[in-house]
Design a protein that fits this description.
heterodimer; A: 522 residues; five-stranded mixed sheet; two-stranded antiparallel sheet; disordered C terminus; B: 242 residues; mainly alpha; Fumarate Reductase Cytochrome B subunit; 9 helices
């Protein structure tokens, strides 16, 4: 990796994720298993640490990508300094009493349960009993009018998709008016565990922190005082207020599993096998500088430059000086995330222009372009047709660029061409032909690299997708206290075998669970 | 003038018990219930009333608290030594106090209203809130009524020679129950509910007052912590401009 003359600074390791969007079928298994693991509790019924949204679409919460409205992430001020979009420190403290930029529950959706009990308790009669929806917040019967992925598969898109904040400018008009030729893909989202996390920087209590060892961003539930500034600061709106405990909660990157060397629940259960987990080494001293890069479209390269090559002897020496253990260095060399992000450069960050340096990256989907090729009467197996489409069919390209490269269509087109060349070459090889290497050369791949990338993206074996080194427990003596309990549980949720310990806890200030089994509340 | 048994009970024993509960309660809660130590925000569920009610209440409360510190803790002789006449003090106190009190009452009224009228929030109201909101409302209403009845519309009552003397006596361990025994009923009731409020304080969301995040103004933006550590260790003084 070209690092110029600069010496390697303080090396830190982060467990990062890449998702291959072409494989996402929008089945929501990741969301459901995540919810069952982390947010099936009172107070976070509306919260999805992992959600899958349809793009184009307004997203969850509604229009969260519109930072003019929600004030998430960082920006450069008039003098080019990096500042939180939601304002400086003093302004933040002055808005403690009422946060003007906090999404309301309506911006997410009203969580519901169903009167399941009527299914078995209804008296015998002519009609089959139905389980009616009931608001979890009020206990009253309610109509379901919105959800975390209301426009699933572009349902209701004519009314809603125009509200997608990524659809701005002239080309967006075309998208809106040519919906019969539209495209869609699914975008699974979780906390980005950013290198420059805005939520951490906005927390007045210092309760949010980034872990030194693995880069996971967590909320210390004992230090959170419920000032709710993190929710505003996060441009991805991936920090949630638990309205029962009055504290902030967020994706934990399943840290108990990561520490044990296992993939996160969303990754483990991903049906499409599209998620990758692995280490990235980065230079912590260059994070601030990279986040303050003047041109938004240079942020992608600036962030790539913060990542370090784990094969570079100089980097290895610096990493050892920083205390990164040998097995972690080995895992960093085998990291599929490093391969996709830095070696093959086919993964892109979501909204780099938010300047948080996100650490969940995406291989952009080729399918919108391929659909367009077929729609135009072309052959999607012919790389020439696809190359032509990538450069000519601006709509999907510009849309993807809005999401992944701050509008730089060249960068997205480069990745899509690389994926096209790879498909075409490997298709020929699989059919017993030699394979045309000119297309590969055009995108800077050797046949050997193509085989390697194909194995990673298409074959995608479990052991290749997840390279997670276990945590070193010998330097984590204090971990035991955390291991025994879910860090975000409220007292109503304690299992019976822990009731004795729970009794020692003060029970004041906690709401009783408001739901009874029949869905009523009082 | 010697104090009766009832006066000793009301103006010496009761305040000391409340103060003891206040202190011990805070130590106990801080040590055992960090998880419950929160503002318990409900802005997610209702923001229209909160938008005005909460700042009005809090800013009013700051002014009211400042007024009480001056009125109760500072003896009249000190302000006179500083060249402020009793008349000037009285006029300022009544005006500033009325503005602050009205802001606080309006804000608290809005906060109570949203808690009662918004079903989502009413259902999320826990036992400590059911004690806190009525107690706080009673204290604030008694206080502003006493001021209005005696000092705005009434002939004027100089609490600094009675209530304040009693208040300071509590803290210098020379209780003077006789000083407040003759005060008007409204002032007495206000003092008693305030004592109760202090006793309830550590067991309610009022504890968030002690977590006012002033340290945030000086902290580096990014917080790193080691997995193994209990306390924060700031490793990176990367401090993008404020």
């Amino acid at each position: 990796m070209p690092r110029g003359e600069a010496a390697v600074g303080r090396v830190m390791a982060q467990v990062a994720m890449v998702m291959n969007l072409d494989k996402c079928i929008g089945c929501h298994t990741c969301s459901v298993t995540c919810k069952q693991t982390w947010t099936n509790r009172a107070g976070v019924e509306y919260a999805w640490f992992n959600n899958v949204e349809t793009k184009p679409g307004v997203g969850y919460p509604r229009r969260y990508e519109d930072q003019e409205q929600w004030k998430g992430g960082w920006m450069l001020d008039g003098r080019g300094r990096l500042v939180l979009r939601s304002g400086g420190r003093l302004k933040r403290l002055l808005s403690l009493f009422s946060n003007p930029d906090l999404p309301a529950i309506e911006d997410y959706y009203e969580p519901v349960t169903y009167d399941y009990d009527t299914l078995v308790s209804a008296p015998a009669g002519q009609d089959i009993p139905v389980a009616r929806p009931r608001s979890v917040l009020t206990g009253k019967p309610t109509a379901i009018t919105w959800g975390a992925n209301w426009e699933d598969g572009l349902g209701g898109a004519p009314e809603n998709a125009g509200g997608d904040p990524n659809l701005t400018g002239e080309w967006a008009e075309k998208v809106r008016f040519e919906f019969e030729q539209t495209f869609l893909f699914h975008l699974p989202r979780l906390c980005e565990h950013c290198l420059n996390p805005a939520c951490v920087s906005a927390c007045p209590s210092g309760a949010l922190y980034k872990r030194v060892e693995d880069g996971i961003v967590l909320v210390d539930q004992d230090r959170c005082r419920g000032w709710r500034m993190c929710v505003t600061a996060c441009p991805y709106k991936k920090v949630y207020v638990n309205h029962a405990t009055g504290k902030a909660e967020k994706c934990t990157f399943c840290f108990p599993r990561i520490e044990a060397g296992q993939p996160t629940v969303c990754s483990e259960t991903c049906v499409g096998r599209l998620r990758y987990l692995g280490l990235l080494l980065y230079d912590a001293d260059r994070v601030g500088e990279a986040a303050a890069t003047a041109d938004e479209q240079d942020l992608l390269d600036a962030q790539r430059d913060v990542f370090l090559d784990p094969h570079d002897p100089e980097v290895i020496a610096a990493a050892r000086r920083s205390g990164i253990p040998e097995d972690w260095l080995d895992a960093a060399r085998r990291s599929p995330v490093y391969a996709l992000v830095s070696r093959y450069r086919v993964a892109l960050p979501l909204h780099p222009e938010y300047r948080t340096l996100p650490m969940v990256w995406y291989v952009p989907p080729l399918s919108p372009v391929l659909d367009a090729v077929t729609g135009a009467g072309g052959n999607q197996d012919d790389p020439d047709h696809v190359f032509a489409a990538v450069t000519r069919l601006r709509i999907p390209l510009e849309y993807l660029a809005e999401l992944f490269t701050a509008g730089d269509t060249e960068a997205v087109a480069g990745v899509l061409m690389k994926l096209t060349a790879l498909r075409s070459y490997m298709r020929e090889r699989t059919l017993g032909e030699d394979g045309d290497e000119t297309a590969l050369q055009a995108v800077g791949l050797t046949p050997r690299e193509a085989e390697d990338l194909h194995r990673l993206l298409a074959v995608a074996k479990y052991a290749d997708r997840y390279v997670v080194p276990a945590a070193h427990k010998e330097d984590a003596a204090a971990l035991g206290a955390l291991e025994n309990r879910c860090p975000v549980e409220s007292h109503g949720d304690l299992p019976a075998d822990r009731a004795g310990k729970a009794n020692k806890k003060v029970m004041l200030g906690f709401p009783a669970l408001r739901r009874t089994s029949s869905g009523g509340t009082e | 003038m010697s104090a009766s048994g009832a006066d000793l009970l009301l103006w010496v024993a009761f305040p000391y018990v409340c103060l003891a509960v206040f202190v011990v309660g805070h130590v106990w809660r801080y040590r055992h219930d960090q998880f419950g130590w929160t503002t318990h925000t409900s802005q997610l569920l209702e923001h229209r009333w909160l938008r005005w009610g909460s700042p009005l209440f809090h800013l009013g409360a700051f002014m009211v608290i400042a007024g009480h510190v001056v009125g109760l803790a500072v003896p009249a002789s000190w302000t006179e030594a500083a060249g402020i006449s009793e008349n000037a003090y009285h006029t300022t106190a009544v005006w500033a106090g009325s503005v602050a009190g009205l802001a606080m009452v309006t804000g608290l009224g809005m906060l109570c209203a949203r808690r009662l009228l918004t079903r989502r929030i009413r259902l999320g109201t826990d036992r400590s809130d059911k004690v806190l909101f009525p107690l706080l409302t009673a204290t604030v209403l008694l206080g502003i009524t006493a001021t209005a009845a005696h000092n705005v519309f009434g002939a004027g009552y100089d609490y600094r020679t009675t209530v304040s003397v009693w208040f300071r006596g509590i803290f210098v361990l020379q209780p003077k129950p006789e000083a407040i025994a003759g005060a008007p009923l409204l002032f007495q009731l206000h003092a008693l509910t305030a004592c109760l409020l202090f006793a309830a304080w550590p067991f309610t969301r009022l504890v968030h007052v002690w977590s006012a995040p002033v340290g945030y103004l000086a902290r580096p933006y990014l917080v790193y912590r080691r997995r193994a550590e209990g306390n924060t260790r700031v490793l990176s003084p990367t401090r993008p401009a404020r």
